[in-house]
Amino acid sequence: QVQLVESGGGLVQAGGSLRLSCAASGRTFSSGWFRQAPGKEREFVAAITWSGGSTYYADSVKGRFTISRDNAKNTVYLQMNSLKPEDTAVYYCAAGAIITRARYGYDYWGQGTQVTVSS
User: CA 28, CA 79: separation in Å to the nearest integer?
Assistant: First the structure.
């Protein structure tokens, strides 16, 4: 069983930046970030393979967010720049055997960290 713990969320003004971290209790394979705003479905944000050689992004964050990982630390990061109020959500990290944009493709989930972007 792998446990995932997110950190780095908070309140930031529009145009600002935040870096989220997801620390895993053991080795993970592919990892992803999802987010869920109030009253909305949980949606894909970004994903990365274990090697870091392949990354995928939702169109809404492409060019603003960057996913990366440090396997020596069992940690995945999400650097978020040029934040917009519509980025406000609870952000979840996930890990699984395959890389996918689909929620059901991930076996392990963190508890989430709140990101609030004020206008």
Answer: 19
Strands (DSSP E) contained in the chain are 4-7, 10-13, 18-24, 30-36, 43-48, 55-57, 65-70, 75-80, 89-96, 108-109, 113-118
Residue whose token pair is 């709140």: 114
The pLDDT profile of the chain, 119 residues, written as one tens digit per residue, is: 899 999 999 999 999 999 999 999 988 789 999 999 999 999 999 999 999 999 999 999 999 999 999 999 999 999 999 999 999 999 999 999 888 999 999 999 999 999 999 99
> CA quadruple 113, 100, 72, 51: dihedral positive or negative?
negative
Name residue 113's beta-bridge partners. 91
